[in-house]
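TA notes, week 10

Several of you asked for a full example with nothing omitted. So below is the full record: structure tokens for the whole chain, then the designed sequence directly under it. When grading your own attempts, check the secondary structure regions first.
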């Protein structure tokens, strides 16, 4: 769901997204927050190096755009436990695309 529109070109595979991002479980538990870990993160789009659901959510965004994405477990970590993320968890990401590289 788009919270705020952006402008300019849309990000596509092969580009790098510079994002402010916050990841949460459905109960609100935060497991990632770029604001608390040093600022914007660089994520390669379409390279298979980030969660498939996150890749899908970021693709097509424009600089300045803010989105909230709910990612089902099969497009996240599936039946694996990763850190404090339980198996079969749906994940919520609040994403702001700062720029495209």
């Amino acid at each position: 769901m788009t919270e705020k529109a952006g402008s300019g070109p849309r990000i596509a595979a092969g580009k790098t997204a510079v994002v402010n991002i916050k990841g949460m479980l459905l109960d609100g538990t935060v497991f990632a927050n770029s604001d608390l870990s040093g600022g914007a993160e660089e994520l390669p789009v379409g390279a298979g190096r980030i969660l498939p659901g996150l890749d899908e959510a970021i693709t097509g965004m424009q600089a300045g755009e803010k989105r909230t994405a709910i990612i089902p477990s099969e497009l996240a970590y599936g039946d694996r436990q990763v850190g404090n993320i339980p198996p079969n968890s749906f994940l919520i990401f609040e994403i702001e695309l700062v720029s495209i590289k």
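Helices lie at 52-58. Use that as a sanity check on your answer.
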